[in-house]
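Hi Y.,

Following your request, here is the sequence exactly as I used it, all 271 residues.
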Amino acid sequence: MEMEQNIGILDVALKLLQKGVSIVPVHNNRPTVDLEEFQRRKPTVEEVTQWFSDPQNDQIGLICGKVSNGLVYMETKHNFGELAGKILHNFFFCPDAEGKLENMTIGKENEQFQITLVVSGFIIPQISYEYIDDLFEYLSYLKEMSLATLIESIGAWIAILKFWKFADKFQQYYEISTNKNRLILAFSGFLRKYLNLSLTQAIAILEFALMKKDITLPKLDETIKGEILPKTKYIDFVYMLSPEYVQVDKWFKELGAEQLEHELLDLISEE
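Below is the corresponding structure, written out as tokens. Let me know if you'd prefer a different format.
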């Protein structure tokens, strides 16, 4: 790696350290310093500067867990459609996670996607090799997350893994629907009523369905007593779905989408 590139990686390394992340230098996917020591303590600015002034140290390794203020890494590998082969990287500070959550992999290589969660230990994010810029972009949005919120997010991904076929059915009808707002309401209500999913899980499946075809959700309307009012984003629209209000059968009938409802119900019987 050229020296000017190494200056870039040093800049990223120092910014990560400033954010509270314990890091180590890496070459050929192997740490070039004693890993155990920096699982116990963060390096100093002087150490980091010395490491990444050496052109051999051309990757950054991150230490998840307590030493890095509860850094948690979640990697999602997509295996479908236009997103096949793409990897989504998420980083969180969750100080309560270590000791309460374990490192885990959800899903298999041949499934729609696979999630890897690292709560403690050493990782080298396999980010495309505009590595320096990409890594800084991903980590520049680091924020603290409660354990409850992290578990809720994992639950949403698990719901997608389990119910992705429902997302596929919805996506097919969404493309041809003339009333996409109402169809989103009906589908979300179906997920709440028949699959007993949380709002977070229902929204995750909805977004997954449209992401597969790179479809951008429209800004939807707020539903109050069956009436549609403008100027509300779709997220508020979905959040108004309470079990008391959901009228799935009526909504599908009004849309002329009873066939979609029947196909979704058939999927439940196959589970």
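The CA atoms of residues 22 and 42 lie 5 Å apart.

Thanks again,
Q.
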